[in-house]
Amino acid sequence: MKVFITGGAGFLGQKLAKKLAGVGKIGDVNVTELILADIITASTPEGASFSTNAITADFSKPDEVKAALACKPDVIFHLAAIVSGEAEKNFDLGYSINVDGFKCMLDAIRDEEEYTPRLVLSSSAAVFGSPVPDSIPDTFHRTPRSSYGTQKAICELYLDDYTRKGFVDGVTLRFSSISVRPGKPNKAATSFFSGIIREPLSGIEAVCPVDRSIRHPIVSPNKAIEFLCLAATLSADLLKDGRAITMPALTSSVGDMIDALERVAGKEAIELIKMEKDDFINGMIGTFQFNFDAKRANSLGFEGDTSFDEIIKAYIEDELGGSVHIAKKQKNVD
Amino acid sequence: MKVFITGGAGFLGQKLAKKLAGVGKIGDVNVTELILADIITASTPEGASFSTNAITADFSKPDEVKAALACKPDVIFHLAAIVSGEAEKNFDLGYSINVDGFKCMLDAIRDEEEYTPRLVLSSSAAVFGSPVPDSIPDTFHRTPRSSYGTQKAICELYLDDYTRKGFVDGVTLRFSSISVRPGKPNKAATSFFSGIIREPLSGIEAVCPVDRSIRHPIVSPNKAIEFLCLAATLSADLLKDGRAITMPALTSSVGDMIDALERVAGKEAIELIKMEKDDFINGMIGTFQFNFDAKRANSLGFEGDTSFDEIIKAYIEDELGGSVHIAKKQKNVD
Predict the structure, then answer these.
(1) Tell me, what's the ipTM?
(2) Topology of the domain covering B191-216+250-289+305-332
(3) Chain A contact for B147, CB < 8 A?
(4) Which of A114, A177, A234, B70 could form a disulfide with A190 if both were Cys (CB 3.0 to 4.6 A apart)?
(5) What's the whole-model pTM score?
């Protein structure tokens, strides 16, 4: 199985690449080649039993998309995107990359003879918008309240129709905010959800721009990778009711997240969080206070995180070597 | 109020133009100018108290769209579209006109300084797709099962986001199939719904390509015009939960429609209907067996048709001068 990842230099693309290098397969199928595509050159994972390549391509340029996909991968993970905060501030850039770029990719696939790859689109809970019920069912309408959410909803519709016509074999996963992300803050409006956990765990101050009472659905990086891999091999027979699936999420208040950080890493950690409300971000995030019933996802084998404490512990294990450094002290975690 | 109609040469555009010429206003606001835009030259209505113009423009060409809208109309009715059957058979043409053309129009409006017209988009019940509940609520997800439905759903999303950003003041009306349409069959997969009533009423044979048991939501031309006019002046305050509104429809089986024709026009009429099943059309129409609860529309003042007999009688009144001609006989209708 030849695997292609757009946004291959990004956090999720890199984590997925490392996972594939480690296990060598998706489901029961061996990976034979991995291509990481991005606008910058991605790092390729070490220790893979298959060939790995990084290619650079601008996915808003039809010729570059066509050239990149000429290798006819069996599975494409489409993770590249202009993130929410940036898409909201730069209207044209967001539509150009998130919609037109995706459409370019679909048309490049359609243009190839006898080629119908599985395409896994990373979509977002931002396709939903208030007012919402206490628990959002799988049949709830898409009413995005952001340009990013609109762009993802449009991509979902394109993917469904191109799939129905037999041009591609698409699956859309609607992810909630992925936290805890390693590395630096990005331009997503939700970036601080990772920041208020990640920075204190490294002894660095973090700003929380929203009220403690704001509730938000979260998925851990490990679960996101697990979901992507499951989507890559999901039988088309199971997808007759539509190709877009809302992924399970753990919905907690910001206060609950901070309390979990205190339980796992102590008072020193949470003292590094500065509550400095930003009305732009608070307003935008306030419209995303969602619970999902995720019945369809559960029935297909997608099972979400169960505890925010566990998400923090997994971050410490995966990214910090199992221990945390706060205020120049080292503290072991159980 | 300067009014602009795309698809102005089409059936609905012409009917709307005649209505405006007759009453001279929309809601309480006087019409001061009417522009009918289409790819062919539209007829302008007679007897209007305001100036009327027909302009030709290809709405897939950005320059032509920009030039057409330079007159800065206050209200734009966007009725132009590649219809369902044609969009299903000609994939690229459908997306080019129905999506890219609409996006061109939105961008042309956005490019004008200090200009935020009310734009009424004619969308379709085809944005929904099976499986559906017995009665589709306003919060039901858009899962189109046709390229036409997908294109309309994408336009709805664009219009919502451009409205949210303040670039335009959009309202989407989701119409069910409009019947009884006068004139000739068009390339919509639903065209026969009008044909099986219209043709017999003029003494002409008509083919019914679907089973009698197939149920379908219908809106009469007069109601469609009434809905468009209401949408043109609806206060933005009432639209905070989203700009797309599912219009009320009268859902009947094909058998019920034929029975209504017999009640209104006699046995001679229905003997002219030939049941010749077309699997392509039967399959496509079979996925549109919808009832809508239309609660939101009702709360905003949109009230649907109540009887298919009345729809047929209104067609005879409006289009046939109040009497029908079947098998060379003339028959008066009550």
Answers:
(1) 0.93
(2) UDP-galactose 4-epimerase; domain 1 (3.90.25)
(3) yes
(4) A177
(5) 0.94
